[in-house]
Design brief:
Elements (H helix, E strand, L loop, with lengths): L26 H28 L12 H4 L11 H9 L3 H8 L7 E7 L6 H7 L10 H12 L4 E11 L2 E10 L5 E5 L6 H5 L12 H17 L6 E7 L4 E7 L2 E8 L6 H5 L12 H13 L3 E10 L5 E10 L3 E10 L3 E13 L4 E10 L6 E9 L8 E16 L5 E19 L4 E20 L3 E3 L5 E3 L4 H7 L2 E12 L10 E11 L7 E14 L3 E14 L7 E3 L13 E3 L1 E14 L2 E13 L11 E12 L2 E10 L2 E8 L4
Parallel strand pairs: 1-3, 4-6, 7-9
Antiparallel strand pairs: 2-3, 5-6, 8-9, 10-11, 11-12, 12-13, 13-14, 14-15, 15-16, 16-19, 17-18, 19-20, 20-21, 21-22, 22-25, 23-24, 25-26, 26-27, 27-28, 28-29
Helix pairs in contact: 5-6
């Protein structure tokens, strides 16, 4: 096997190249190369499945990496030096060595010697072999010794020779040491800094290069890349020149482009603008996973899958996004009758993916009786991408009259009356990071008391001292009805994996509202809300919610914090507790029952109060209960039963809980 060997280092230096890069090398090197070629092929296979595991999100994902994307390797031959040239001239052929082994089998080993090893490497080589003077010579023992010496990492090539003496046989291992390392150069790394990669290099300049340590160093660099999501990274070439300078060439793996499948209504750009990487970027599985989460969280698709196809260039991929659309438009007509309003009709038209553009539009119209009965409309429109910075705009216009039942803190009705609210809101939002967004809302709303509907337990005194009950007095109406003009600021960080059915992450928001600006109410409010989700077991989730709120100034009942009902404190009436302060805690355990059906056990606690920084005795309330959620084409339906201080109540809503 006399072939030019110094074109590359030993086979161990070729870790992660995907194939052996040495044109010809000795016995131990040959075995190592075979192992690494197999390992590289396995690693290429792992790359395809690793992306699938990391990009599943709330839906299924499948990925395949083509061989053409994994095998792009370049050869950078180096010229042979005098040392290796002389070695090649004197080295016997491997078949000749094998032919000698049988001649000495069964004889006694008199001594084991090393030719070509320096003072630094000879003790290591001696310690590596298990063969000693006095042992019986066997071919297996000799070749195992050669493997052991090679595995120390200090030697490029090894071959044994044998000398017959009267006492037996002397075994001499001729070794060609690796060169002394004079420098290291990294080529091709763009997303990871040189200093971060050099920290993972254990081989030292000025010392004989150890290929075993270099093997571990290259693996550490790969692990570092993979930890950051760059799973296509591999070392495509390593070369050491006659001066001892080691060059390591890295291929980080590129995202060549995107392909979209399965979207019949949704436009390609609506999906592609959610991608967190641009074509030409180094492929990152974490960003691919985040991209799929964002597409799924649009709410337009039942399922989102990705597949990695080989690109045109070596070690490049095309990310194929395959979606299954669901119905996003709704149309509803309702007809009812009440003694106060007579015949009541309702029409609702909505689409969260209007004409496939990603815009959301909704209009609800209600009509009954005369101008003092239930009637009106609510219109909303949202455009999610006003510019390239993902600025979103939402417009709401409303003018609605409906019957409102007012309850005291014991759950007893104070009065039923017709309330009218009219006005509008404009909200602008813009992300400040991948998971954080700022919002600003301008609100102008007028609340008006229309007429009394039904008596309750409210009691007040007339100026002449007489008692009146069943209906609020004029002073209460003047204090609580009028025009609210406010600006609302909010900062929210949302790390939930799936906003519709979260299993990990959370959402925390800070909100401040300032009212005045020529309206009838002047107040300030500040609140913080946090929700957290923890996956336990296969599909069970523990959900936690906490909220605190503080307000001051002239807050009407419709601007106060309101606690009670499905969205806050279950087991109590809607808005049963009101005040300028608020605190709320919820803990919920969610578990699957059957496909698309989820059960829950929950505990809620909290209240809203006024006049003190903390709730007084008797102002905190709690409940326990259970619920069931059904995932339907129009969204999740939730039914809860909660038992509070005044008994149990059933709550129903369209949409998920916190």
């Amino acid at each position: 096997m006399k072939k030019t060997r110094y074109r590359y280092l030993a086979a161990a230096l070729a870790l992660a190249t995907g194939a052996a890069v040495l044109p010809g090398y000795a016995y131990a090197a040959e075995a190592a190369a075979a192992k690494q070629e197999t390992a590289a092929a396995a690693e290429a296979g792992k790359a395809g499945t690793a992306v699938a595991a990391e990009t599943a999100g709330g839906s299924k994902a499948a990925q395949e990496t083509g061989a053409s994307a994994a095998n792009g390797q370049a050869a950078m031959p180096a010229p042979a030096d005098e040392r290796t040239t002389n070695w090649n001239k004197n080295r016997p052929d491997e078949k000749y060595i094998e032919s000698l082994l049988g001649q000495f089998e069964g004889q006694t080993i008199v001594d084991t010697r090393f030719e070509g090893a320096s003072e630094k490497t000879e003790p290591t080589a001696k310690a590596a072999i298990s063969m000693h003077a006095g042992d019986m010579f066997t071919p297996r023992l000799v070749m195992e010794g050669r493997d052991s010496i090679y595995n120390t990492g200090y030697f490029y090539d090894i071959y044994p020779t044998f000398e017959k003496v009267p006492e037996g046989v002397i075994v001499t291992y001729h070794v060609l040491e690796n060169p002394v390392l004079t420098g290291i150069e990294l080529i091709g790394n763009t997303v990871e800094k040189d200093e971060d990669l050099y920290k993972r290099m254990g081989v030292k300049e000025g010392e004989i290069l150890n290929s075993r340590i270099l093997h571990e160093n290259i693996q550490a660099i790969q692990d570092f890349y993979h930890k950051d999501g760059y799973i296509l990274m591999k070392v495509t070439d390593m070369n050491i020149d006659p001066s001892g300078k080691l060059t390591i060439k890295i291929s980080e793996g590129l995202l060549e482009g995107y392909a979209v499948k399965g979207n019949k209504k949704t436009k390609d750009r609506v999906i592609l603008r959610e991608m967190r990487q641009k074509p030409g970027d180094v492929f990152n599985s974490k960003l691919a996973r985040r991209s799929i989460q964002r597409v799924y969280n649009l709410g337009f698709f039942e399922d989102v899958n990705i597949k990695m196809n080989p690109g045109v260039e070596p070690n490049a991929v095309v990310m194929e996004v395959d979606v299954k659309e669901k119905r996003t438009g709704t149309f509803g007509v309702g007809l009812g009758y009440s003694t106060s309003d007579g015949i009541l009709g309702m029409l609702n038209v909505a689409d969260t993916n209007f004409r496939g553009t990603g815009d959301a539009i909704s209009i609800t119209i209600q009509k009954s009786g005369g101008s003092r009965d239930a009637r009106g409309y609510v219109f909303s429109y949202r455009h999610p991408w006003l510019d390239r910075k993902e600025t979103a705009g939402t417009l709401k216009i409303y003018n609605r009259t409906y019957e409102y039942a007012d309850y005291d803190t014991n759950g007893q009705k104070k009065e039923s009356y017709m309330r009218k609210y009219s006005g509008g809101e404009i909200t602008l939002s813009r992300p400040v990071s991948e998971y954080s967004t700022n919002y600003i809302t301008l609100r102008n709303r007028k609340d008006k008391y229309i007429r009394h509907v039904d008596d309750g337990n409210v009691v007040w005194k007339n100026p002449d001292g007489s008692i009146h009950w069943g209906e609020h007095d004029e002073a209460w109406k003047d204090y609580n009805f009028g025009t609210t003009r406010s600006i609302i600021f909010q900062h929210a960080t949302d790390t939930r994996d799936n906003i519709y059915n979260p299993t990990e992450g959370g959402r925390v928001s800070l909100t401040a509202e300032v009212a005045g600006f020529g309206g009838d109410f002047n107040f300030q409010k500040a609140s913080i809300a946090d929700t957290r989700y923890y996956k336990v077991g296969h599909a069970q989730v523990i959900a936690f919610r906490g909220e605190l709120g503080y307000g001051r100034g002239h807050l009407s009942e419709f601007n106060q914090y309101r606690i009670g009902g499905q969205d806050t404190l279950r087991g109590y009436r809607d808005d049963q507790f009101r005040g300028d302060r608020m605190g709320l805690l919820s803990l919920e355990y969610r578990f699957p029952l059957v496909e698309k059906v989820q059960g829950a056990i929950f505990a809620d606690g909290g209240s809203a109060w006024s006049g003190s920084a903390f709730p007084r005795s008797g102002e905190l309330h709690g409940s326990l209960g259970f619920g069931i959620s059904l995932n339907t084409p129009i969204g999740p339906l939730r039914l809860d039963y909660g038992k509070g201080e005044n008994g149990g109540r059933v709550h129903f809503t369209v949409g998920g809980m916190f």
